[in-house]
Amino acid sequence: MHKFAVRVLVLGGLAGLSMAGAANAASQDGMFREMTVHYSASSLATDEGAREVYNRLARAAEAVCPNQPSYGHLHTGDVGKCRQAALSAAVAKIHNQRLAALHAANWKAG
Description:
The chain has 110 residues and is an alpha+beta fold. The protein has one domain (3-109). It is 45% helix and 15% strand. It has helices spanning 47-64, 76-94, 97-109; strands at residues 3-10, 33-40. Helix 1 (47-64) crosses helix 2 and helix 1 (47-64) crosses helix 3 (97-109).
């Protein structure tokens, strides 16, 4: 069984928030923040497995993006944008139709 990993990244600077498809946003310390999510290709072969990988990616996006905007130039809406950008970039990097469909369905719902 092959194991893969995808990194969910947050880079310092507000400019990253406007970059389409990139997992960029302001971090509190202005430094790179990332989390690696491990998964196997076989886990993406089922709906249940894809949901599990997606949930791990979403938790990683929450972990690398600030929980609360504790500095003046980042607003609450930006936190959500940061998490969405990080999650979208991670899903795109994995390039799996089942995972992409799940992400698209969650994006419309939420």
